[in-house]
Specification:
This protein has three domains: 163 residues, P-loop containing nucleotide triphosphate hydrolases (Rossmann fold, 3-Layer(aba) Sandwich); 178 residues, Arc Repressor Mutant, subunit A; 112 residues, Trna Endonuclease, Chain: A, domain 1 (3-Layer(aba) Sandwich), CATH 3.40.1350.10. The chain is 44% helix and 18% strand. The protein is built from 22 helices and twelve strands. The strands form three sheets. It has a five-stranded parallel beta sheet, sandwiched between helices. A five-stranded mixed beta sheet has the order 8-9-10-11-12, sandwiched between helices. Strands 6-7 form a two-stranded antiparallel sheet.
Length: 484
């Protein structure tokens, strides 16, 4: 089953239909579906698809040569292996393609470069001399994002400026991800997404005909299943010192989101923590988040901002697998689900629900379904003036720390949308709207403010009646946000 990736496939088809030679770089984190998308694109086209392996340069050349020769290269009559990489790459032009573009895909290209650092230079020379003028399309694909961004695409690399397209593949959006579970209720679709995110490899591990509880127990919490050791495998494969990275991510998962809090929790040297956090950000495991109204100066300050785990599955794994390893190793998967996962499920899913609501607003913005064009969107936190009731019953206005789930605004700071997202078993009421309105005191005088409330369990009749009368208040249920 292949789901989504319409934008990626459209990008490749546009390049394929171009009359010029094409040199494309596709990259993204592991498990995200790059290889499967490329296979989908190549389907029905004459092509050569070569997957690099971590082997010696001579073995790589022999394996690559075999693929080229078996594809119909005339050189197959005379040789078993090309004598060098230049000859091997040049032979692409001799592959029969029935008048169509000659298509070569090299998957996990960094492995090829690891065995022979001169390969980018060889390709660059061939591209400049002849390949760029031919009806050929070469796609270089890789999961080692640091290598792709810092070396292959850097100004010092021979291929810099030669590529005709660079595409960084991200996770599937939530509206594609939930299509993996067509018979689930909207609530269970949201919960499944909060666990697995938009990583196709993870989504495919769940059986859509089994309950969410069965899938979590059998495919995540049971020792020996694919997802049980997935995070440890990726950490060891991508990073040195996995124990330190585990400590840092675990601290963030448990609520230490400020740099100083992470230092206090882990007791790892501050300079080292900054490096480790940067590496985790590059792998899209965590991100550094700022309030939506933060200035550029604040964002440039290394000690500001909050760190959060952006990968849904990493959040789930560190929250419930890593935290309960002893019980899981003993085989008590059902017990961990019933006593650790189930009671915290709504709270855990709240962060993912907020991100889904953000995407929902972005989609409305793209379709011009909002009353104004938003240019900035995100979480807000800071100080607001609120009424505080003292012990003696008297009220006073005080400046208190507060936060808003989502704030959207236009370029001129004249129009705002404030949003509250509630993923709980209780309906949202007028009190939730009033609380959100009180937090609007940070907005400059004269600005127009609208309110959006998103709720898993719906809304009370009183709130629905109020929203019907007030055009500045909109209510969205879970079924409004998630596709059918």
């Amino acid at each position: 089953m292949f789901i989504g990736r319409e934008q990626e496939l459209r990008f490749f088809e546009d390049k394929y239909s171009s009359a010029d030679g094409q040199l494309i770089v596709l990259y993204g984190r592991r498990r995200i579906g790059k290889t499967e998308t490329l296979h989908r694109f190549c389907d029905g086209k004459p092509h050569i698809f070569y997957s690099c392996r971590e082997i010696s340069d001579s073995m790589q050349l022999a394996a690559f040569s075999e693929r080229i020769l078996h594809a119909g290269s005339p050189a197959a009559k005379y040789v078993d292996t090309f004598r060098d990489w230049e000859t091997a790459f040049r032979s692409i032009l001799e592959i029969p393609a029935s008048g169509e573009k000659k298509l070569l895909v090299i998957d996990e290209f960094p492995y090829m470069c690891k065995g022979n650092a001169s390969i980018p230079s060889i390709l660059q020379i061939l591209w400049d001399e002849s390949l760029r003028h031919q009806n050929v399309m070469i796609i270089l694909c890789g999961s080692a994002m640091s290598f792709i961004e810092k070396k292959l695409l850097s100004k010092k690399n021979p291929l810099y400026g030669r590529t005709t397209g660079i595409y960084k593949m991200n996770e599937l959006p939530y509206d594609d991800a939930v299509k993996f579970f067509p018979v689930y209720t909207a609530e269970h679709k949201m919960l499944a997404y909060s666990i697995l995110g938009g990583i196709p490899h993870y989504l495919k591990q769940f059986n859509p005909n089994h309950s969410l509880r069965e899938n979590i127990i059998n495919n995540i919490l049971t020792k020996g299943c694919v997802l049980y050791s997935e995070v440890e495998f990726l950490i060891r494969q991508e990073l040195r010192e996995p124990a330190l990275y585990n400590t840092i991510v675990d601290a963030i998962a448990l609520g230490s989101t400020k740099l100083n809090d992470i230092f206090t929790k882990t007791q790892i040297d501050r300079p080292k923590i900054s490096v480790y956090l940067k590496n985790l950000i590059e792998l899209k495991i965590i991100e550094r988040e700022f309030s939506v109204l933060s200035s550029g100066k604040e964002k440039a300050t290394s000690t500001r901002g909050l760190y959060k785990i952006t990968d849904n599955f990493f959040r789930f794994w560190y929250s419930f697998v890593f935290a309960n390893l002893s019980d899981l190793e003993a085989g008590d998967a059902a017990g961990v689900f019933d006593n650790a996962v189930q009671p915290q499920f709504n709270d855990f899913a709240s962060m993912a629900f907020e991100s889904v609501c953000c995407e929902f607003i972005r989609n409305m913005n793209q379709r011009n379904k909002l009353e104004f064009r938003i240019t900035n969107l995100g979480r807000w936190w800071g100080k607001v003036n609120q009424t505080v009731i003292e012990d003696n019953g008297k009220c006073r206005i005080a400046s208190v720390e507060s936060e808003i789930d989502i704030v959207a605004l236009d370029a001129n700071y004249r129009n705002y949308i404030l949003c509250e997202c509630k993923f709980s078993n209780s309906k949202m009421d007028i009190s939730d709207l009033r609380s959100l309105m009180e937090k609007a005191s940070f907005i400059r005088e004269g600005a127009m403010v609208q309110y959006m409330l998103f709720s898993k369990s719906g809304f009370t009749n009183a709130l629905i009646s109020l929203a019907d009368e007030n055009k500045n208040v909109q209510l969205f249920s879970l079924t409004d946000v998630l596709p059918d």
